[in-house]
Amino acid sequence: MDRRVLTVFVASPSDLADERFELRAEVDHINKTVAKQLGWHVDLTGWEDTRLGFRRPQDLINKDVDACELFIGMLWRRWGQPTGQFGSGFEEEFVRARDRRLSTGKPEIWLHFKFLRDDEKVDPGDQLKKVLTFREDLKEKNELLYKEFADTAEFKTFIFDSLADYLFELAKAPVKTASQDRALPVQQESRASKAPRGKHAKPKNAKALPNDDVFKLFTRIRKELRQSGLRTLDISDRTRLLLLSTAWYSMAHDNEILGAHELNLAFAKRKAWVLSSEETILANRTMIADKDTVCPAWYWLKDSTKVRPLLSYFASSDGNPAVRMGAFWLLAKYSPEIDLETMKQGLGDPVTIEPALALARRLAHEEFIPLLRTVVDNPESNKRSDALQVLIELTCHKNQDDAFELLTSDADRVPGLLRELHKQGQLHISKALLEEAVSKASPAVREFAATVLRETKQLSNEIANALLNDPDQRVRKVAVLALFDLGQPLDMPAIRALFPDRKGAAATALTLSHDVDPDDFLPLVLDKLTPEELLSKIQFFSPDGVAAYWVLANKYFNQAEARIRQDLSDNFESLKREGEKGLVVKWRPDLLQFRQNQYVDAALSGVALNATPQDISLARRVLSNPEVPRQIATSAIAILSKFASAADVDMLLAAAEKTYGNTRALAVKTALQLAPNAFDVASKLVAHENSTVRKLAARTLLVQDWKISI
Question: Distance between CA 588 and CA 580 in Å, rounded?
């Protein structure tokens, strides 16, 4: 079968190396599975695939950009380096792709942003500022819908699903009538007295088992019966006899399927056997019903044009609930289209309603709205709430205000689409509807409406104060945050009164909801204080003391530097002794050490943000302690990464073993950059148990031009 090629170009700065690696892995997976079945191949290119040449490097890369049919862009904290014509390679590649899209309709463009914490946006460097500016520009132009992903694992899942869906869309057959689209060649129905579950024509494989194969099989069986009573009949013949008899039996009892072991035995003989239509249908039904994906059968369904009609038939007409559910889940995940009759049956079948709702949400056809209303209007449906969520999302594609009225009137939670639109600044609900929702909707919807009003700067002082009396703590939390935004912060006693501890307390209107920890507001309260006011709150045994020290060290480091460095030099012993003077009950030694570590962590975080070369000795002293807590090591590694030398390589590698995530990656990356014997260090680390460490080591070995003596 001739394969069609989808050319994809990936553009990103250097801080998304993990995502580029996983993207290639997912494309390989797609090519071996979905694309192979559809007769397509995904050809992924990036700057690393560009041929060498004597030209401006970006000009060589641009050839691949200009040839792509799908442009995948990714950004996180970095913008990239100037190319001579644009601010970065990513910018030049995106502009070329966008300009070509506007003039020719190609390529398709997907943009992804990796999640940024709020504190990273407060004081971004030059690189991150450009990323944030670019993102705001996208919002204003409203040219395309981009996605945000939390981590590499979420990106992998999203890119696989998106590419699979896109390939199915590309592989759509020419427009057919509804009957042509559903029907395959039919065989004589042996159960004429049984009313069909759906109106789809029953599928049939074009290849029938030759009569001489059947004759030879049964001749061998008769011979074995006469000679040994089947004791010597080999496993191949036994498996084929089971497959045939079960297939014939299933013609009269369509809930019958094979076991996983039996289907795998048949699969082992796939090249030697030519299955009849009954056997093929049984094999595919068994595979579709298999939730554990241990039953292979796609080999017998090589014609990709028959996949969707087969699944539609099984989803609506099969007598086995597991087959119907499995078929509908496959349609929900991969099908580019579905007819209204199949969707109606899926929504009306308790077995398949969940995948049918997933498919309706993904395809988002307006024609599904009446079908969804039928489910929503049925008070006996246990999926009524889920159906309402999909109905709201589909209505939202037509009219956001209409969707929000549905949400306000009946929903117990907020659909993901509305949250995503709000996150991207594309939710435009009238202020009147939002204000109405905060007073009469369900708790989750009240919280969402209040959040939208607050984050769009439409929540008035009057409404915020009224929401302080809301029965739900989450709504009251939004109100408190809004008052801080409006310059009317509450103090901690007032906040603690709003969010009482429910343990052992009598139930009241203010406690019957989700718990909110009032101490979550402590940084906001402390952030409004002056350095002098913060210093007055720093008492060793005070529960607010550590939080006050964090704000002092991170916000007012220059004003309090002498105090911070003095506290670090004596490991906060002076502060502890001062606090012990008024202490009634002595703390256990382990609790004292834990509190000291909290203060050291707070102080070091401020030093790390404002480090100078002289702080290298402090970082070395901290990391030389074999018992140093992980959180303290994190700040010390941040200091060391800025000013370390080759002498610190061993210390960095040892510190990496005590940390994880980005901190571990920073320690290993710095060590590999500084190590004079980087090849030897990387060669050892490629066998490390941690995947991030292995990837960093592998990249070091790949990108360097090592000269090895043999």
Answer: 13
